[in-house]
Amino acid sequence: MSRREEPLTIPRENADLRTFVRKKRIRIWLQTLGWEVFWLAVFFYYHSRTDMTFDYRFSLVLSALLVAGLFLFGWIRMMVDRSYVGVIRQIVFRRVMNTDLLGNRGGKSVLAEQMLLWVEETNGHRHKIVIARKKNFDRYYHVGDQIVHHSGLPYPESNDGADRYLYVCSLCGGVELTDTDHCHGCGASLIKPPQSRYTKTEERFF
Ligand SMILES: [Zn+2]
Fold it and tell me: Is the C or the N end of the chain the one with fewer CB within 10 Å?
């Protein structure tokens, strides 16, 4: 099953994707730090200014811990989002209603098409990947295909898609033909297959 021998890091030639992941990590880390500093400041402000009862102070500490914990949880989730290779065991399509709670779309709710990939690693670990359903995904992802998830990138790369001359953009999910270096939709670089797979596909021609 392990056709892919090289380490699961994003290739050097995909510098833009590496930068994207690095920036995402820094952003999450700073957000976490920011919220913790904010809640500590709130706590110390109340602590110094008011004669609070013990109960009130206790609940304030609890809520501060809860909020800090939630953001820390998000950060930890990002940190444990490791790269892996797995096989698609099940594909589920679903429609979800994205309710516009913040009023960004003028209060209109949008019906979003999603694709759920149940992926199993060689060691038996199961992962659920939820991605927005994009054009040509039915041609790109299939049950039984081997996929590579790169930590921090939303769309997994299919090793079998390469055999069908199809490539997915790791950032926007646009499906491209093999002969392009960059995504037509967002301009991100496409992760190219290891050399072994190029020779494998060429062998089919001769
Ligand atoms: Zn793209």
Answer: C
DSSP sequence for 112-144: EEEEEEEEEETTS-EEEEEEE--TTHHHH--TT
Who has greater pLDDT, 7 or 144?
144
Helix (H) or strand (E) holding 73: helix 54-79
**How far is Cα of residue 33 from the mean position of the Cα atoms in its chain?**
21
Q: How far is CA 6 from CA 46, 95, 143, 160, 196, in A?
A: 54, 37, 24, 17, 11
All residues with CB under 5 Å from ion ligand 1:
169, 171-172, 174, 183, 185-186, 188
- Listed by start position, the domains of the chain span 16-79, 82-203
CA of 92 to the centre of ligand 1 (A): 23
Dig out the tokens for 64 from the structure.
Answer: 């501060």
Q: Examine the pLDDT at 14 and tell me if it is beyond 90.
A: yes
Distance 80 CA to ligand 1 centre (A): 25
Kindly tell me the burial class for residue 54, based on how many C-beta atoms sit within 10 Å of its own C-beta (0-12, 13-18, 19 or more): exposed
pLDDT digits (tens, 9 = 90+) for 114-130: 999 999 998 899 999 99
- pTM, full prediction: 0.72
Mean model confidence pLDDT for the chain: 81
